[in-house]
Design goal:
single chain; alpha/beta; Rossmann fold; 8-stranded mixed β-sheet; 8 helices; 34% helix; globular
């Protein structure tokens, strides 16, 4: 199967910023926000799993070359672009990455196109926390934060930051307080230094029992999980029945079903 087979490339523009978006499937909308270095074959494969589960997947390209295999030089190049771009808040605490506003607009457009009760989203790695900021729009019903790595966790303050401004943090709190169905799913490997325990602790402090943290024990040689395991749903997914990464994947898809297609 071709890397992006099953997806149609289109474009989405918001406030003068146009980016390519690969779209496939039918059903309620789920925005799949790729990790570094871009929409890799494994990210596209995850997108197809979302489609197969009964959803219309929207894969925006924020950086990198859609469909390209990851490699060392490509990873460094994409990471550098993220670090120097004003669209992504990589180091500062108490700030919201501007790209989240663009993603909220994409999700709103996807909901208009697909209908249903609302929209889901999953961010990964540098985009892992973006779905939390997308909750400022009530249409975001199923936010998934997979290995949320921004701001980069160097130092105690950054490790415990969730990558939102004070105003946006307050808005998320208000959403949780007035919407007793609001819920956020988070995923990480326990040895992943880019997603320290303090970050998940911050989510729990912000969201209370509305945050469901899935923490996969690592390293675990018996299960093929190395110390450097990072990408729960893509590069480090071990596609074996009963494997904890597959169970995490199934939990994500069931989260989407329960929140976006409850009558199915």
């Amino acid at each position: 199967m071709g890397t992006l087979e099953g997806f149609t490339e289109t474009e989405f523009t918001h406030e003068g910023v146009t980016r390519p978006v690969h779209v496939g499937g039918a059903g309620p909308a789920v925005v799949v926000i790729h990790e570094i270095p871009g929409i890799t074959p494994k990210v596209a494969e995850f997108g197809r799993k979302v489609v197969d589960a009964g959803f219309r997947a929207y894969l925006p390209s924020l950086v990198g070359d859609p469909g390209r295999e990851p490699g060392a030089r490509y990873l460094v190049s994409s990471l550098w672009k993220v670090c120097v771009s004003k669209e992504f808040t990589t180091w500062a605490t108490g700030r919201t990455s501007p790209v989240i506003g663009w993603l909220r607009a994409l999700a709103a457009q996807a909901h208009t196109e697909c209908g249903g009760p609302g929209v889901g989203a999953v961010g990964m790695c540098f985009s892992g926390g973006f779905a939390l900021g997308m909750m400022l729009d009530d249409r975001m019903l199923a936010p998934v934060l997979s290995q949320p790595s921004l701001p980069f966790a160097l130092g105690r303050k950054r490790s415990g930051s969730v990558g939102l401004s004070d105003d946006d943090l307050a808005a998320v709190r208000r959403r949780v307080e007035r919407d007793d169905t609001a819920c956020v799913l988070g995923l990480r490997f326990t040895s992943d230094k880019t997603v320290p325990p303090a970050r998940f602790a911050a989510y729990r402090e912000l969201l209370g029992d509305r945050f469901v943290g899935v923490e996969i024990s690592s390293p675990d040689a018996a299960r093929g999980i190395g110390k450097s395991a990072h990408s729960v749903l893509t590069e480090h997914l071990v596609d074996e029945p009963g494997h904890p990464t597959v169970e995490a994947l199934n939990q994500v898809l069931e989260f989407f079903r329960a929140r976006l297609n409850p009558g199915a």
